[in-house]
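Provenance

Sequences were taken from public entries as deposited. Structures were produced by running a predictor on each sequence independently, with no templates supplied. The record for Rhodanese domain-containing protein from Halolactibacillus alkaliphilus is shown for reference.
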Amino acid sequence: MKLIVIGAVAAGTSAAAKARRNQDDLEITIYEKDVDISYSGCGLPYYIGNEVESIEELTPRDPAFFKKKYNIDIHTAHLVTKIDHDNQQVYVKNLQTDETFTDSYDKLVIATGAKSIVPPIDGVDLPHVHSLRTVQDARRIKGYIDEHQPKKAVVVGTGFIGFEMLENLIERDIDVVIVEMKPHITSNLDPDMADYLEDKLAKKGIDVRTSKTVQTIRADYVLIDEGETIPADLVILATGVKPNVTLAKAIGIEIGQTGAIKVNERMETNIKNIYSCGDCIETFQRQTNQPVYRPLGSTANKTGRIAGDQLSGGSLEFKGILGTSIYKLFEFAIANTGLSEIEARDAGYDVEISHNIKPDKPAYFNGTEMNIKAIADRESKKLLGVQIVGQAGVDKRIDVFSTLITYGATVDELFHLDLAYAPPFSTTKDPIHYSGMILDNAMTNNRALKTSEDVRKMQADNQPLQIIDARAEKQHIVNCVDGAISMPHAIVRARLNELDKNLPTVTYCNSGTTGNAVQNILINYGFKDVSNLSGGNKFYQATKKKQDK
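Predicted structure for Rhodanese domain-containing protein:
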């Protein structure tokens, strides 16, 4: 049997390697239009920023490696221009010689990946304007910086690449302004967590312009809305990617509702003997079974392995994704898994939300705070999704949360997890435990939560509300929730007569623990409707700055 694979990055090489492991007598050929194969695209910004010294570290495998180890023939700079599925042939053009030829297959894998979205902006074709998708892109950007020594850059977009380029350009002593057309940065976070992150970046002096669109690019500046100009002698377009489906569409392969190739759980397309995998396909969200397009390297490798296994007689099937992701931005790690609050509400869930701000380990071991937003379903009490912004230990927690969601954990089960504890690694009750306790208390023990957004909306609607600041008086003077009464935890029992037991009441402290303690006191003394402010004053103040703009 002869296998042809179109594309030799993560998915294509994974498919070919798995097929070879299953069947040693296969004839396997891969055609790749680029000159680089099997590279780590996620590492490219760090090469530009000189954190990765050599591009060879990101391209450790060449065609000779695959020939020697797997007996796979990889032809780089070879573009497949057409597929004839009736006769099971591909038409190929050698981009170095312009020679064209045909090759036949018994099974075909389309792993054509994705391509950068280049918006139709006047000046987008200028030499100092770049997108980053491939190794060649990275070489061009790094070469341009080395040669021209730009001093001011504009990065357009706040996805993974946009933020990673922001950090690495700053590492090259380039002043950067980041422009985002949406009201909130980073689409992998809900607006409240995005605002929290934006506040952290503002405190670092990072210039972020949201709700702004680039209108024109010139040699030394970028023109955005309302005639504002931003000096820039380097522009990075990080405006997302779209699936490369041209070949597939030309032969009638079904395209899904996300615009990517539609496959089943075996990576089969609607045309017999043709499979697809990687960044050109749509997958499905594990919890809702709805189609999604999430082009991540981890998913590309996984779907490639499944395609290679299936076409060579295996039984691997795709189980869906939670969209788990993580990226680094300066000292912060930003991660998410499962459904966002917006996605959960859109899917019809009655959600409970908690914002849990806790250190990753004790202060005496230099613990730093992480903010964990957890989304749960009130009816089933299942954990639906988690988002984390923190400095240390974020990767550990998001992977635990991803595992819990995968196997349908309910929030009460989080407290009972037997997690590893020692002071250099965690607190005695881990932040994961706390998130479970907060949600379980809210849903089963009448310890209701209100988000900052809930409080602002109640106030905007002039609803009756009394807000109690349980912190020390000196903290209240520095800043507080709008309309709050200072009533420190230590003296709240003595001042209960100042409060109306029948009014909706919100308690808070800096991050939630003391606010919950005062909430318990009020409930025990017969107050009817008492909520604790999710995330406390820290989260309220961080998101308030964005709301007040």
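Residues 468 and 485 are 5 Å apart (CA to CA).
The domain at 448-548 is CATH 3.40.250.10 (Oxidized Rhodanese; domain 1).
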